[in-house]
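**Fold tokens**
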Amino acid sequence: MNGIVFDIQRFSLHDGPGIRTTVFLKGCRLRCKWCQNPEGLAPKRELIWWDGKCVRCGRCVEACPEGALSLSKKHVEIDRAACTLCGRCVTECPEEALTLVGEEMSVGDVMNVVERDTVFYDTSEGGMTLSGGDPTVQAEFSAELLKACRSAGIHTAVETGMLCDWSALDLILPHTDLFLLDLKIMDPDEHRRWTGQDNGGIKENFERLCSERVKKIVRIALVPEMTGTRSNVTAIAKYVASVDSTVPIELLNFNPLCRSKYEKLGRDFPVTQAKMFSDEQMAEFRQIIRDAGAAVYGEASSGMSA
């Protein structure tokens, strides 16, 4: 079975316990304004232009059989409606300034990369994490890949925003050791405003997952004035505590470095003024979680529910 993978990061330390290999799959149903991986939103391959590498030679424009590329003083303009992703421009570019993001890979192809670092997983209690995008978009491929890892004795984790039919989660559940569950915003109207989708189904899936005997961590990506507000963190923490107070909450500080990805994809970055929270502000958010009766991930009193 094949899937569309847009990145594989080895020696990852932030996507679950220990040293991990994180496999990023294309496709996501949410459209969060702060998305850190916009190249993972579409379920298909995409053409990206890298400004810093481009010498404006025009060879890509000449190579394109569809006339989808044009050269201006500052940019290589891409008509994405006309582009067929044939890859000829990528082949002709002498500086590798054009790249096709997303590669069709088999379970065996991915496992060939994942299994290179088995010794590190064994010594650090690490493993493989599926991320994206959202792995539930490619649920069948995700399930087969997780199953292959389990067969090889490799710990498995899945990061998901849970916006999917339960059948997708049910498919990958038997092969998953740990779920990293992204909760964005509690207020339904604000959730639709900043993600483009309602959160009713997300909450239903979260509550159903909490009834399953699998380890879970809730993650909140803190974005100023969107998710990173006292009221929102309070609401999420109280909600998690009411469903299962043993599920710890991990806070992820905003990372503005993804701005360049939007530029390469020809998209506007909606949160240009947002900055990372200070250590003091992060400490305040952690206290909010404690005050709400929930557990803070990584603290001695917290654990991962099972």
